[in-house]
Structures are given as C-alpha cells and as structure tokens.
Amino acid sequence: MVQGIANWNTGETQEWLQQYVDDWVAFYRKHTNDGNVASYIPILAEADPDDLGITIIGNNGLSVRSGDTEIPFTLQSISKAITFIVACMERGVSYMLDNVDVEPTGEAFNSIMHLEMKPVKKPLNPFNNAGAITVTSTLPGDTSEERLEPVFQLLEKILGYRPSLNVDVYESERESSNRNRAIGYYLLEVGFLDSDLNATLETYFKQCSINVTLDDLARIGLILANDGMDPKNGEEMMPRQVARLTKVLMLTCGMYDASGKFATYVGIPAKSGVSGGILAAVPPRVRDETMPFTDGCGIGVYGPALGDKGNSIAGTRLLRHIATQWDLSIF
Ligand code: GLN
C-alpha cells in the first residue's frame, strides 16, 4: 500500500513519488538480465540491454520521470496503434472494421500461420504484423511519404514537434524483411491488401522506424486516456470513438500473445514494440483518493531487453508493480 500521498499535489509529495519510482526502477533494472534485445532487425541489437526508464504524465500536469528517459528509440509495433488511429480518421471506423477484425490471435506478432489455420475474411486484428500491414495498405496516397504524412501530422499535433525518421533503423528493417514480405505476399494472394504491396511495405518499415522518447509515449498515452482529448486545453486530437476502439484493441491485442496476462496482471490498455517501448493509457477512475494519478495519466516505458513474447521484460514488470501498488487497473 502506498503511504503518505494524501497531499500528493504538494512539492513534498512529488519528491516522495519520485523517490518511490526511482527505487523501483533501480530494483527492476536487474530484471533486464532475464531478457534479450531484439536482433532479427540487426540494428536493434545495438541497444543497451541494461536500459530502463519510465515517464508518467498525469492529467493534472504532475509528471514523474525516472531511469533512462532521454534515450530516443523507434516506435516499432507501437506505430501500429498510431497508423490504426490515422486510418480510422482518414477512411472511417466502419471501413477499417470491414478490413481488419478485432480478435486476439494468441499467436506471435509475426505469425502467418493463424491466417491459414481457419478460414478468415480479414486479418484478425490491427496489432499483429498481418493486420498492421493491412491497415497500412488503407492509408491514402501513392508513395510512402504521402501515406505517412497524416501519421506525422497527428504525431506533430500531439507532441508539439514533428518526430524524425530513423533512416538506419528503416534500412536495417528493410534489409531483413523476409518475413514481413512473406506476410505481405500472403495478404496480397488472399486479397486482403487495399493497395500496392511494395508501397505498403515501405510505409510499414518507415512507420516502425519513427524516433520517439518516453515523454512522447506518455503524452500519446495521456491523450488516449482522455478519449482523444488533450486535458491541457480540451482540444480534440482524435475522435472519441477512435480513441476508445484503439484502447480496446490495446487491451486485447496490444502485448501480442501476452495480452491476456498483461490485462490480468496489469489491467491497462498498452501497446509494446520490439525496440523495448511500451505505451500505456490509464483512464481516470473512481478509487481511493490517496492513490496517485486517480484522474488518469499516460505512461511511457523503455527497456530494450525483451521477454520471449517480444515485450520489454523489466518494463512490463515495472509497470505491473506500479499498476498494482497504485491500483491503476481499469477493472
Ligand atoms: N518492425 C517490427 C516488425 O515488423 C515491429 C514488430 C514489433 O515491434 N513487434 O517485425
């Protein structure tokens, strides 16, 4: 039980919170030894496996940053949530739901098998690679630049700056993309793609290679926590329906084939990527008011050492700890 935070808006309590998060980041940093950095995209193997950081931005403006919060990393699969939001905004929710289903697969994020195992009319969800590549194929435009423009525009609107493309990561992913190309050809074969395969794959590799920081993830999480609205000024960043649907998918499919466990033990809509990032959205909840962030927050976690399902191992455990202690679960 967290003690002594009844007046957690005061500077004194902020110090206490900071100390608390610092202590647990130090504790869970040792857990990075239980995982490995992704190496199937060669450049991702250059990340420091010991890194661990967290940023929490609350609805009331309170924020806590701890650990390795300054290291930029690429969105990887977290981009699947962003492109899904953009595709819903560009093409409409019903069009997107006609093109991609909303069912967890229980299979690895880069599985092809699940598409063939039983007759499906569309990829099972937008957050595995098959579904995400399909979503990317619905983005309007001929070139990858044109298709990504609304993605960059949404990010710029939310973050207040235009994030950059990590060209080295993009090239590394592109050069080691046999599996994603195989998925793409399968999608083409069964008629699930909405547009040209090569332009779709180029767009997909680039969306995965957008640089972000932990503050960026926390800020995106905060917007989702508020159903698409910026709590600072009430501005709508995305339609409420789109934000809510995205959170449902984050909860049911956001952590790949560990989504059920994550929902059970953490209970927060989240999306991970193989770079080690986790984006989490904690909506406001009616709880014990002595808990921090009862009015909602966005959380970004970074820890490139991954567990066997491709999620940050120490990051997931840190998030589980904090969510349990602060009763952040949406259930
Ligand atoms: N770019 C990665 C891929 O397609 C994204 C996967 C992930 O983050 N899980 O393999």
Description:
- There is one protein chain.
- The chain is an alpha+beta fold.
- The chain has helices at 11-29, 78-91, 93-99, 113-117, 129-137, 144-159, 167-175, 178-189, 197-208, 214-225, 240-253, 259-265, 313-325; strands at 53-58, 63-67, 73-74, 211-212, 270-272, 277-282, 297-302.
- It has a five-stranded antiparallel sheet. Strands 3-4 form a two-stranded antiparallel sheet.
- A hairpin with a 4-residue loop joins strand 1 and strand 2.
- The longest helix is centred in the first third of the chain and has 19 residues, at 11-29.
- The two termini are 18 Å apart.
- The model is unreliable at 1-9 (pLDDT under 50).
- Glutamine is lined by residues 76-77, 109-110, 129, 173, 180, 208, 273-274, 310.
Order of helices and strands: HEEEHHHHHHHHEHHHEEEH
Structural class: alpha+beta
Which residue ranges are poorly predicted, with pLDDT under 50 across at least 5 consecutive positions? 1-9
Query: What does the overall shape look like?
Result: globular
Sequence of strands across the biggest β-sheet: 2-1-7-6-5
Which strand-content bin applies to the residues? 5-15%
Determine the N-to-C terminus distance: 18 Å
Enumerate how many helices there are, as a single number: 13
Q: Report the sheet with the most strands, covering strand number, pairing sense and barrel closure.
A: 5 strands, antiparallel
- Report Rg: 19 Å
- List of distinct ligands in this structure: glutamine
Average pLDDT confidence is 94
Number of strands: 7
Q: Could you estimate the helical fraction of the residues in percent?
A: 40-55%
